[in-house]
Write a structure and sequence with these properties.
The protein is an alpha/beta fold. It has two domains: 128 residues, Urease, subunit C, domain 1; 257 residues, TIM Barrel (Alpha-Beta Barrel), CATH 3.20.20. The chain has 17 helices and 16 strands. The protein is globular, with a radius of gyration of 21 Å. The model has no long low-confidence stretch (mean pLDDT 98). The structure holds guanine and zinc ion (ZN). Guanine (GUN) binds next to helix 3.
């Protein structure tokens, strides 16, 4: 195969460490006039244009973006494909919201053509918003995952997804059985896990909708194949937490249910965790598990405020999740806008560099993919974005007043959304152009 080499010149910014561990200044690299070189879908060099240009052949194709910032692609560690059609459903908190809106909407995925149509819309929406990797809940129907992976494979995206396992406390039209969920998940794993840049996640919806038998089989599956993911929900809503105590009186608490069924581990991602206690954060950290912080959802469903400082105290891996359709935006920029406010309401700060970390390298670490995505380090996948400083008249005017990259970054996260993402590249290919 001939070498395809391209270079991109612009301001370039990426996270290289967690500000909570190394301090803000050591957590990022910024090149005011930077150059990113891509060879065959991977980043081969990153640096100051003035230094790198001399080392490149004269005939290399260079795309020069003015008034723009190149960053790594965003990583969404929690989102639901079959809830694309119900974003912004009025008036309920979690448990009523599930029964009133979510389950009927997900039932439409029994129709294969519907699943294919929504998978296309969903992936376009991810890319329009600059999300190049997501950890995705399908519906209970295996075809939701087949439709999603087929669409992701065509674009060579790095994506993770799984079929929901749910065998109780949901309508009959939407439940599987412990055995059928095991067999269907296994068939999906055999077909997709490790194919190209795709990975499978064993996906028990949450403790209340799985019997002990189903949770046992979910834990068993995780032991049968290497590097499988596990995704579920935890401690999102106070009524939900009480319900789990009633359903599993023999366990110490919500996390202990998952722990008992061997669902914790380095590739396990628990969505929300708004009402986790100190001991639970410690246990999550000890097992290398991660939490997806989903601020737009937590505010929209009135669930509560995620305690990021507590997670940091325990060195718990945290990624950012949109949680569409409980969340209200596919945009991780808008998600960070709300994350900042969630911290403000708790008397805490969220620095723009911590925010950048959460949306990129922090998400990659939560997914154990930091060797491949989340930064612009040479040797990693060329998944990156071009953010346009002139995306809207207000953004353009506001950024002209900016005195630093910190201020520019913070304003991008406050005013930015899908309009800010001018181009999205995945594995070096242009997969979205505004
Ligand atoms: N808990 C169980 N299922 C769901 C879901 O679909 N969305 C959210 N936000 N929480 C859940
Ligand atoms: Zn969710």
């Amino acid at each position: 195969m001939p070498l395809t080499r391209k270079a991109y010149r612009a301001a370039i910014l990426h996270s290289i460490a967690d500000p909570a561990e190394v301090g803000i200044e050591a957590s990022y690299e910024y090149f005011e006039d930077g150059l990113l070189v891509v060879d065959n879908g991977q980043i081969s060099a990153l640096g100051h244009a003035s230094e790198l240009l001399a080392s490149l052949p004269a005939n290399i194709e260079i795309t020069h973006y003015q008034d723009a910032l190149i960053t790594p692609g965003f990583i969404d560690t929690h989102i639901h494909l079959p809830q694309t059609g119900m974003v912004g459903a009025y008036g309920e908190q979690l448990l009523d919201w599930l029964n009133t809106y979510t389950f009927p909407c997900e039932s439409q995925f029994a129709d294969r053509a519907h699943a294919e149509e929504v998978a296309e819309i969903f992936i376009k929406e991810l890319l329009r918003n600059g999300t190049t990797t997501a950890l995705v809940f399908g519906s209970v129907h295996p075809q939701s995952v087949n439709a999603f992976f087929e669409a992701a494979e065509k674009l060579d995206l790095r994506m993770i997804a799984g079929k929901v396992m749910m065998d109780r406390n949901a309508p009959d039209y939407l439940t599987d059985t412990a055995e059928s969920s095991y067999l269907e998940s296994k068939a999906l794993i055999e077909r997709w896990h490790g194919k190209g840049r795709l990975h499978y996640a064993v996906t028990p919806r949450f403790a209340p909708t799985s019997t002990p038998e189903q949770l046992t089989l979910a834990g068993q599956l995780l032991g049968e194949y290497p590097n499988l993911y596990m995704q579920t929900h935890i401690s999102e809503n106070l009524q939900e937490v009480e319900w789990v105590k009633e359903l599993f009186p023999e366990r110490k608490g919500y996390l202990d249910v998952y722990d008992h069924y061997q669902l914790l581990g380095e590739r396990s991602v628990f969505a929300h965790g708004v009402h986790l206690c100190d001991d639970e954060c410690a246990r999550l950290a000890q097992t290398g598990s991660a939490v997806a912080f989903c601020p737009t959802s937590n505010l929209f469903l009135g669930s509560g405020l995620f305690n990021l400082p507590m997670a940091e105290k325990h060195k718990l891996n945290v990624g950012l999740g949109t949680d569409v359709g409980g969340g209200t935006s596919f945009s991780l920029l808008q998600t960070l806008n709300e994350a900042y406010k969630v911290m403000q309401l708790q008397g805490a700060r969220l620095s723009p560099f911590k925010s950048l970390y959460l949306a990129t390298l922090g998400g990659a670490r939560a997914l154990r993919l930091e060797e491949r995505i989340g930064t612009l380090q040479p040797g990693t996948d060329a998944d990156f974005l071009v953010l346009d400083y002139n995306a809207t008249p207000l953004l353009s005017y506001r950024l002209k007043q900016s005195k630093s990259i910190a201020e520019t970054l913070f304003v991008l996260m406050t005013l930015g959304d899908d309009r800010t993402v001018a181009q999205t590249y995945a594995a070096g290919n242009l997969v979205h152009q505004r």
